[in-house]
Structures are given as structure tokens and as C-alpha cells.
Amino acid sequence: MQTSSKPRQIEGVVRQELESEAVLYHAATGKIHILNKTAECLWELCDGNHSLSDMEADLRARFQIPDEAPVANDVAETLEQFATNGLVSVEDSD
Questions:
Q1: What's the structural domain count of the chain?
Q2: CA distance 80 to 68
Q3: 11: helix, strand or coil
Q4: Which of 7, 62, 71, 80 could form a Cys-Cys staple with 46, CB 3.0–4.6 A?
Q5: Which DSSP state fits 70?
């Protein structure tokens, strides 16, 4: 996945709050996915308008993560898991 990729949530995935975590239910597969706060923030940004670079910047601002802390790989890995599990489609920017 490229830093310019713009993931978008797949239709048919329902999000619910459960205690301190978000739960995604993928109707087509019948699978449930539990997200921590960081993954939940990334999920919210999967609207087809935010690139991986945008998401990294958003996480840094929300959680006050210093610039020298490595975040890009974690963002990419989480979004790859979303894609692998059929939760998002990925659009590459031109």
C-alpha cells in the first residue's frame, strides 16, 4: 500500500461501541473485528479522502506522537489488515 493510497470503508460493515473498543461486523463474511483506539481512529479516516500520509499526521496530532517516533509502518500494517479482511478498498492517488 502506497502512502498516497486512500482506503475507503466497504459497504456492509457495521460499527458498534463495546466498552472501550469498537467492534466491526462484516455482514458479507459474518466476521467480527475488534479495534483498539488507534485502529478505530484509522477506521474513521477510511473515507476515500485521506491518504496514509494524512492518517499518520492525524494520529500524531490526536495522540501527540513526536515526529521522530515511527508511525508510518504501523499505519500501513493496520490498513493492510483492514484490506486483507475485506473491510476497506484501496484507491491510489494520481
A1: 1
A2: 23
A3: coil
A4: 7
A5: -
